[in-house]
Amino acid sequence: MDNAAGSTVTPKGRRYRIGPMSQAPNDTRSAADKARDTAGIVGNLKHEGYVPTPEAEAVHKQVARGEITTEEAIKIFRDRALNQDAELTARQRRPERA
Predict the structure, then answer these.
(1) 79 falls within a domain
(2) Does the pLDDT at position 83 exceed 80?
(3) Beta bridge partners of 10
(4) Three-state secondary structure call for residue 19
(5) Which of 11, 25, 70, 92 lies in the 20 to 30 Å Cα band around 64?
(6) Cα dist. 66→10, 21, 26, 61 in Å?
(7) Which residues are within 8 A (CB) of 52 and not within 5 positions of it... i.e. 6 or more apart?
(8) Max CA pair span of the chain
(9) 31/22: higher pLDDT
(10) What tens digit of pLDDT does each residue of 5-19 get?
């Protein structure tokens, strides 16, 4: 039987008993490795069209400080995206004349 790392499954009568799982391993990467990985992630996001704005960075910092939850941040970003989409749609319907 294929089990998660660190867990044990032993038969007990007709049922299986699942033993305790070990803790997840600590992140042993150096600060430089973590920074390089973060830069790679941000680079990938920028490649996909993400443009970091001061407002977005402020929301991310609020989440990091625990001032708002991740769900609240997602709602903020979703509302902003809907507003931007509505603005773009409105501009396409009535193009501005110079």
Answers:
(1) yes
(2) yes
(3) 17
(4) coil
(5) 25
(6) 41, 28, 22, 9
(7) 42, 46
(8) 81
(9) 31
(10) 555 666 666 676 666
Using CA atoms in the order 11, 16, 19, 22, what is the torsion angle rounded to 10 degrees?
Answer: 110
First to last CA, the chain: 70
| Domains in the chain, number | 1
Buried-exposed string 19-33: b where 16+ CB fall within 10 A, e elsewhere: eeeeeeeeeeeeeee
* 0.85 surpassed by pTM: no
87 lies in some domain:
yes
- Distance, in Å, from the CA atom of 33 to the CA atom of 17, rounded to the nearest integer, reads 40
Closest Cα partner for 29 from 38, 21, 20? 38
Quick: pLDDT tens for 43-65: 887 777 777 789 988 998 998 89
Q: Is 90 helix (H, G, I), strand (E, B) or coil?
A: helix
69 near 63, Cβ under 8 Å?
A: yes
